[in-house]
Specification:
single chain; alpha+beta; Aspartate Aminotransferase, domain 1; 2 domains; 6-stranded antiparallel β-sheet; 8 strands
């Protein structure tokens, strides 16, 4: 394939992918590390430097539905001003958890609400897990102890739980996670798990149920001692 045709093909693929992902995909490919916009046909030149195999054209999937954040006046009980938030984002300032949530697509929101529902349901009243949304995250506590934190990093929904990241049962390749115990904010909940797919959501719910089982056992033990 000649260079002009390759550039046209790459431009078409960028357009398709941008439609699918709802963002500009320029700079998101492996060959972009070699990009030099000062030369003619920059994408094709970078692609050839990478030595990549021929790139098949993938037509766009149905775009992920997004709620119109411009019309929102609040997010997760916090005041929300779209123009101010976008100005913060353009200035590369940190967004709050509620602001990130407001700008997220409907799939991430659905997964977040499912995690929230699972964390706060099906426990005795005295052992209920309660949510408190701060600037950085949504923190869940029971009897003063942190049992979960939910964050949004980029477009990634993540949950931190009080599980041992080094336990063999979580290192079998089926539950990819990150040990965040080196960060003070995650000391109580060092097990970080990305919830970016249906399967990941299912596994996250299973992990939450393990945590809830421990919470309930602790409550029952305290209740027995009190009696």
């Amino acid at each position: 394939m000649d260079k002009v045709a390759l550039q046209a093909k790459l431009d078409l693929q960028k357009w398709y992918d941008s439609q699918t992902m709802n963002r500009d995909m320029c700079g998101a490919y492996a060959f972009c590390v070699y990009c030099d916009k000062s030369v003619p046909l920059p994408c094709a030149t970078a692609f050839e430097k990478l030595g990549a195999p021929p790139m098949p054209i993938r037509k766009p999937k149905k775009p992920v539905e997004k709620q119109d954040a411009k019309k929102q006046s609040s997010s997760l009980g916090k005041k929300f001003n779209y123009d101010k938030v976008m100005a913060k984002k353009a200035a590369r300032k940190s967004l709050t958890f509620a602001e990130k949530y407001a700008l997220s697509d409907s799939i991430l929101k659905e997964r977040y609400l499912r995690l929230q529902e699972e964390l706060t349901s099906s426990l005795p009243k005295q052992a209920q897990i309660k949510s408190r949304i701060s600037k950085q995250c949504d923190t869940y506590r029971c009897d003063g102890e942190i049992v979960a934190k939910i964050t949004i990093i980029g477009t990634s929904l993540r949950i931190n739980l009080p599980l041992d990241p080094n336990a063999p049962e979580y290192n079998d390749g089926k539950t990819p996670h990150v040990d965040t115990s080196n960060k003070k904010v995650y000391e109580a909940v060092p097990f970080q798990f990305k919830v970016n797919s249906r399967l990941a959501l299912k596994r996250a719910l299973d992990l939450i149920n393990k945590v809830k089982q421990t919470v309930n056992e602790t409550y029952q033990k305290k209740r027995g001692q009190a009696e």
